[in-house]
Amino acid sequence: MKKIMKKYILFVFLISGFQINAQNKFLDNYINVAIENNYGVQAQAQNIQSVASEKEIIKGQGSGNLEVMYGYGISPVETRNGPLNHKVSAGIMLPWFGTRSTKYQVVDEKVQLAQNQKMMTENTIRYSVRAAYFKMIQNKKDLVSARENLEILSSFENIALSQYENSKGSMVDVLRVQMEEEDAKNKIEGLIQDSLVLYQQLQLVVNKDLGDIQLEDQFQFNTSSQINLDYNPTLQSLTASEKVLGAELTTVNKSAAPQIKVSVDYGVLGQPQGMTAENAGKNTIMPMVGLSIPLFNQKKYSGKKEQLRMQQQSISLKKQETENVLKSEYIMVQNQLEDAKRDIVIIQNQLSQVDQAIDIQQEAYAVAKPQGSEFLELLRLQIQRLNYQFKQHKAELSQWEALAKLSYIEGVEE
Hints:
Elements: H1 2-16, H2 25-37, H3 39-52, H4 54-60, E1 67-79, E2 82-94, H5 99-165, H6 171-206, H7 233-255, E3 259-269, E4 284-292, H8 298-367, H9 373-410
Antiparallel strand pairs: 1-2, 2-3, 3-4
Keywords: Cell outer membrane, Coiled coil, Membrane, Signal, Transmembrane, Transmembrane beta strand
Protein name: Transporter
Main location: membrane
C-alpha cells in the first residue's frame, strides 16, 4: 500500500505541474484537424472569398452605361454652315469623386467581419475539442483508479480468506469483499462504456476517424488574473460590424453627391442653299459636361443615413452588453478555477491520510480477533479512497475546463 501511495503522489505531482509544461502536441493536432475539417469553417472561408469578390462587381459599376443616341433631321435645323441632317450623341455618367474608393472600403470592412466570424467559429471549435479531450483524460484516470481498486479488493479477499482459514476471520468478511468486487467490476464496465461515448463525441467534433487517441495531461494556457478582451472574437466581430456601417454611411454620403455626365455630340451637316460659307458642310463636334443633382432624393438618403446611425447605436449597446456578460463570466470561471485548485490540494491531503489509515487498519485486521468490524472499516476506507480519487479527477477536470474557458473568453490562440 505504501508503494501504491508513493506512485499516486508522484502521479498527482506530474498533473499539478501542467501549467509550466510544454503545450500538448496531441491536443494541438486534434484542434488543427477539427478546424481544418469543420464544415462551418470551410463555409466561412468561402464566404470571405465571396465577399472579397464584390470589388470586381464595383469595378463594373464604377460608371454608368454608355448612352448612344442618333437623330435624323426630318426638318433639319439650318445653320450658317448648312442644315443639321444627322446627329450622334454618346455620353456616360460618372460617380462623384471618391465614390468608388468608399465602396471598396465597405468591402474591406465586410471581409474583416467575415474573417472575425470565422475566428469565432474556430474559437468555439478549439474549446469544444479541449472539453472533449479533458473528459477523456478524466475517464481514463477514473478507469485506472477503478482497476487499481479492484486489484486491492482482490488482495483484501485473499487476506480475508487467509484469516478465515486460520480461524482469525469470518466468512462474512469474504462475502463482503466479494460484493464490493462486483460493484467495482460494474463500475469499470460503466467507465469503459463512457469512454466509447466520449471517443465518439471527440471524433464527431474533429470530424475525422482518429484511431487511437493519444491522451496526455500536460497543458499550457496563456491566461492571467486580469481579463483582456482585446482578442475576443465576438467583440471583434461587433467592432467590425460597426466599421461596416460606418463605411456604408460614408458611401451613402457620396451617393447623395451629384453625378458627372461626360458626353460628345457629332453633327453631320449638309450643304447650305443659297449662301456660301468658309466651313460650309463641315461636320460639328461638341464635347459636353453636365451634373446630375439629386434635388428630390435627399429624403431617401437622409432616411438611409438615419437608419445606419441607429444600427450603429444598436451594435454599440450590444457590444457593451456583451463585454459586461463576458466580464461576469470571466469572474465566475476564475472562481471555478480557484475552487478547483483548493479542492485538489485538500483531496491530496485526504488521500495521503486515507492511505495511512488503510495501512494501519490492514495491520490491525491481520492481528485482530475475528470480530469483523476491523475488516468492515478496511473496506470502508478503501471505498473512501476510491471516491477521493474520483473527486481528485473531477477537480482536475474542473481546473482544465476553467483554464480552457478563460482562454475561450479572451480569444487567445494557444
